[in-house]
Amino acid sequence: MTAERQVTTRPPVRRRRRPSARDWRVVVVFTALYVGACYLGRSTIVEGAEVSLVWPAAGVSVLWLVARARRPWPWLDLLALAGATWAVVASTGSTPASAAIGAGAAVAQALVCSSILAVGVPYVWAARGTRQLRRVPDLWWLLLAAGTSSVLSAPLVELAVVVGGAPWTWQTALLWCARNTVSIIGITTLGWTIGTWLHERKSQRGVLERLEWWTDGSAGDYVAALLLAPVLYVVWFLELSDLTVIFPLIALTVWAGSRLPTRSVVLHTMICGVVTIQFTLQGMGPFAGLPDATTQVAVAQLYVGLVSVIGLALAIARDERRRLLRDLGSARDRAEEQAALLSTVVDTMSEGVRVVDAAGRVVVRNPIATLLLAGRTRLDTEDSTSDLAGLSRLDGTALPEHELPFRRALAGELVRDQDLLVRVPGTPEPRIVTFSSTPIPESSGGGVVTVLRDVTAERTELRRAAQVQASLLPSRGLEVPGFGLAARFVPAGSVGGDFYDWQRLPDGLVLTLADVMGKGPAAAILAATTRSVLHAQGSLHDVAGTLSATERAMDADLVNAGAFVTMFRAYVDATDGRVSYTDAGHGLSMIIGEDGSARRLSATGLPLGIAPGPARTSVQTRMRPGDLLVTFSDGVLDAIGGSMGDLDQVRDVVRGTDTAEDAADAVLSLVQDTRHADDDLTVVTLKRAA
Known about the structure:
Elements: H1 21-42, H2 57-67, H3 74-91, H4 96-120, H5 122-126, H6 136-163, H7 170-200, H8 206-215, H9 219-239, H10 250-259, H11 262-281, H12 293-347, E1 352-356, E2 362-365, H13 367-374, E3 391-392, H14 405-410, E4 415-422, E5 431-439, E6 448-454, H15 456-472, E7 483-490, E8 498-505, E9 508-516, H16 521-535, H17 543-561, E10 565-573, E11 578-584, E12 589-592, E13 598-600, E14 619-622, E15 628-632, H18 634-640, H19 647-654, H20 660-669, E16 681-688
Antiparallel strand pairs: 1-2, 1-6, 3-4, 4-5, 5-6, 7-16, 8-9, 9-10, 10-11, 11-14, 12-13, 12-15, 15-16
Helix pairs in contact: 1-2, 1-3, 2-4, 2-7, 3-4, 4-6, 6-7, 7-11, 7-12, 9-10, 9-11, 10-12, 11-12, 15-16, 16-17
């Protein structure tokens, strides 16, 4: 008995990331900074108050969480933040319960603020504080985050005060919101500025380059904003005590914000804010006249916040505007380079290019276009009509303005290869120029691009080729007693790959229709070659043997050209109407009886060139008196629908026709526009008299 072991495949266990040595260093450094900021804030508690007048730790806590964004163990930061807050607050006079609630308020504020920043300023969050604010709306997100987190955490602070034994007062909430909002705005922007400097310091070489990074090349303004402005604040607070005279100092920040980069304005507002708060804490300056110390510092905090927001908004807008101007300048330089390159390309093209706007005025006209249309290489750029004076139709008649290629394109028509005669003064013979016009999208300003090409020699060669091809086709019908014969041939271009042929025999005739894959000159050459090889065969009665011999003779040519030939070839005995035919992949032949019935003559083998080798076979049928034999190329079938079910249209249209000529015309009438057919159109009809 064989024991089977069942192997259970367990999904791979995803290991949780652990903090790296760098993560631990960040936690330790920010814990130390946060503890120092907490002790600094607790040193500003006034007698009888439970809340510090200044709290820089709020800004440090937000910097902490941003610096640790998307790092392992985020709960570690919150735990360390809460523990540090409780330890400092409890060791500086608060009860353990009050300190615990205060710690919860600090954690809640930092968490709410950093979460809003992650949504509103994602690039700062993703860079972990090593990028400055770059847009004015980002400053509003920072202000929203600071204010919202302060307001939402204020009730916890009120609870901590009450638990600590002090009475509830609205001044506590006001001071908490004011000081923490200002602290977050000031400390975080300063921290992000320092983080950006540290991040970019490696690319800065030398002391001068590092100093220029801070000053943006304005050393005098930098000194004035960081030294003279704080000195003026000191003098102002020492000499003036009226609250209303403090606001002219905002002009200093407006001046700094309009002339210095954001990083310099951050230092300016931080230094001026420290001077303001310190003098207010000492009971000096314009805010000292308010009723109590808490109100004095709260209002001073609001003033500092106002100055910071004004300065940052102006500086960020200035930096954003300078970046935009720099980007626009770079885009303009690139556009000029591309325009020069495009102009060079257009001027050196072998085809003419003529571009008009939506109103028909010439925007671009390269020398070739001017030479083709006017016989000169230069025309006045304001001249939009004289180069069109020599245009006419191919038959020499005048060309109405609405038939001009660019006018047709402006009307929404896609013009391709419109041949026109161009009579240039001083030249004996007119040129044949083909025009292709394409509308320019409205989103790009509208207009038309027209490409011109001199096809005089090409059209002349094609006309000669067409004449040669026409000479190879039967010039007139055969006189076969009791039968009428007709054919129609419309090439898709000047020449085509279809051909038909008939040959008179003593007892009847041989009828052929062939279609070479493709169209144009290459297909026409293969068609002429196929016809010549067919005519070189000896036994015309044996249609199957003739096709086999032709395929063997043309095998190399078809392989080299990568082409094949479909063909219908039939021998018709004029005495009794017997038909012997071979169909090489054609399958578009029918015999329509006098009563309207139809018999399709199916293919008897593959096209010539597909799989040469096996001998061809022939099929016997008969044409009764009044019957009509119709064979046509696949170009006709494609033009009337493209499916084998559309053969019924051919049957219906030839039913009741009296002659082969009428039947051929009837089949061709199914094609709506024979001048613009996609493929050659060939029809051959044989009618047996009733």
